[in-house]
């Protein structure tokens, strides 16, 4: 266990380049899977347009984050610079700036953290549907829980040895994930299974009206899509661990963004083109399975191989979320916004306490048994985090105290307005929309869970401030004791030699 500053921040080590950062973040395209059947339920084939616009929103937001990642290279991405900026804006060791920054980071953590549970549930669902023997012997919940234990435990073991080894695993998993995604996206077009009339003939719901009800639904749909399509900002999380953060962070961000833009648009188009809107809604949990069956036949080795590869690819997005949320917790502890135990790293620079807590928390979330419900709760935290993070970016552009900071990557002129626009789009508009959408679809459980988890941060933060004060008093007492011993030694040095 080590807390000393190595060459990153509080034990984090500068060990990866932009290619490794991209590989870790390449699990992000998998985030479309829980929503492939969800968005068409509300906006039909226009879901294709929603994904395109949401990914472009990611480019606007992540351009601001790329500037922040290079301006504050020792902070861990979005939660790191948000904490620093709000603390600077409202100074005071235990003041409201620390609370606002800490809450932003906590919201971000809650946005990413449940991905482990969501994809463990999806893996369990795929296993239950693909392998009848397993489906007969175990319930879907049991398979999901077992998948969670195995995946979380395996990733903990691999990442115990540092981010560099986790990045090596990500190279393998990235290839494994992109292959089935590309196959299931491109093959239906190549084999003629995509019927364009399924898209053009059902572009927008027939009962759609531009009233307040449907506008709130649209904001909610954008909030859910934002959770997936903008998530490649995670490539900026590893600022303290990039060898050359001023160049590595922007390269990793934009490389991942281009891949997401292509895959998100084409994948939704492929699924709707093959199954039609009604077919996608009927298979809302795992629409890629009937697409694969349409292309490769109802049974066969190729079908099984592609689906197994897809499930293996889900391990990559779980790894992406696992690493990103653990760095968020570590960053919060370093900034004094979570208890000191979350600062602990092992000799390889791994924040292992955070990894353990995240794994246990997600095993609990799996008990909700519904990936859509977990996602809906998670999206509230994620959207709040990005709203406040973009407001933090605006602060750095307005505050003269930041005027002289080196900005190796500088967003285009006028980006302050872009940041403010999307900050307000996220908070309050998309947050209100997601809450409204939740109330229509799955009741109030997800919203209650979301605001419950977000709200519990306040007493945790006050406990942390109490812990810091106690630690300061203990440190001051030790310094005072050392000073008294030094004075006593000095008095002895002044005594005449015979007496000594």
UniProtKB/TrEMBL annotation:
Cellular localisation: Cell membrane
Topology of the protein relative to the lipid bilayer: Multi-pass membrane protein
Region (Disordered): 479-500
Range of residues in the leader sequence: none
Gene3D superfamilies: Amino acid/polyamine transporter I
Membrane-spanning ranges: 39-60, 99-123, 143-161, 168-192, 212-232, 252-275, 295-323, 349-366, 372-396, 417-436, 442-463
Compositionally biased tracts (Basic and acidic residues): 491-500
Molecular function terms from GO: transmembrane transporter activity
Keywords: Cell membrane, Membrane, Transmembrane, Transmembrane helix
Keyword Transmembrane helix: yes
Pfam families: AA_permease_2
GO cellular component, one term: plasma membrane
Source superkingdom: Bacteria
Protein name: APC family permease
Source organism of this protein record: Arthrobacter cheniae
Lineage: Bacteria, Bacillati, Actinomycetota, Actinomycetes, Micrococcales
């Amino acid at each position: 266990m080590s807390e000393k500053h190595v060459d990153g921040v509080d034990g984090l080590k500068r060990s990866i380049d932009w290619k490794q950062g991209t590989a870790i973040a390449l699990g992000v395209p998998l985030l479309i899977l829980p929503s492939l059947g969800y968005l068409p339920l509300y906006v039909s084939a226009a879901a294709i347009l929603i994904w395109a616009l949401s990914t472009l929103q990611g480019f606007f937001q992540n351009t601001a984050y790329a500037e922040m990642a290079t301006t504050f290279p020792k902070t861990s991405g979005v939660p790191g610079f948000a904490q620093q900026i709000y603390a600077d804006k409202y100074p005071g060791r235990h003041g409201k700036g620390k609370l606002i920054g800490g809450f932003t980071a906590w919201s971000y953590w809650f946005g990413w953290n449940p991905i482990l549970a969501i994809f463990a549930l999806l893996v369990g669902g795929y296993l239950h549907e693909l392998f009848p023997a397993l489906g007969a012997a175990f319930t879907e919940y049991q398979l999901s829980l077992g998948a969670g234990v195995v995946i979380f435990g395996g990733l903990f073991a691999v990442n115990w040895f540092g981010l560099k080894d986790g990045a090596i695993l990500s190279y393998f998993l990235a290839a494994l994930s992109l292959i089935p995604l590309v196959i299931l996206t491109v093959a239906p077009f190549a084999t003629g299974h995509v019927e364009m009339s399924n898209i053009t003939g059902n572009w927008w719901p027939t009962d759609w009206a531009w009233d307040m009800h449907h506008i709130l639904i649209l904001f909610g749909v954008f909030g859910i899509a934002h959770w997936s399509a903008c998530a490649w900002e995670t490539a900026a999380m590893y600022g303290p661990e990039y060898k050359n953060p001023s160049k590595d962070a922007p390269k990793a961000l934009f490389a991942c963004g281009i891949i997401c833009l292509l895959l998100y648009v084409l994948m939704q188009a492929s699924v709707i083109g093959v199954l039609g809107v009604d077919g996608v809604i009927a298979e809302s949990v795992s629409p890629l399975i009937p697409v694969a069956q349409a292309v490769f036949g109802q049974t066969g080795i190729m079908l099984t191989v592609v689906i197994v590869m897809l499930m293996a690819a889900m391990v990559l997005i779980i790894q992406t979320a696992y690493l990103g949320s653990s760095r968020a917790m570590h960053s919060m502890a370093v900034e004094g916004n979570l208890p000191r135990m979350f600062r602990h790293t092992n000799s390889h620079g791994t924040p292992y306490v955070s990894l353990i807590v995240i794994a246990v928390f997600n095993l609990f979330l799996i008990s909700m048994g519904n990936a859509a419900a977990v996602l809906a709760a998670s999206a509230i935290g994620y959207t709040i985090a990005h709203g406040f993070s973009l407001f933090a970016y605006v602060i750095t552009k307005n505050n003269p105290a930041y005027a002289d900071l080196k900005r190796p990557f500088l967003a285009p002129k006028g980006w302050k307005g872009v940041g403010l626009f999307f900050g307000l789009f996220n908070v309050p508009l998309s947050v209100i929309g997601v809450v409204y959408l939740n109330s229509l679809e799955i009741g109030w459980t997800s919203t209650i869970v979301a605001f419950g988890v977000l709200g519990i941060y306040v007493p945790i933060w006050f406990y942390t401030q109490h812990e810091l004060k106690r630690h300061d008093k203990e440190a001051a007492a030790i310094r005072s004791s050392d000073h008294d011993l030094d004075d006593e030694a000095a008095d002895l040095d002044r005594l005449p030699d015979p007496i000594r």
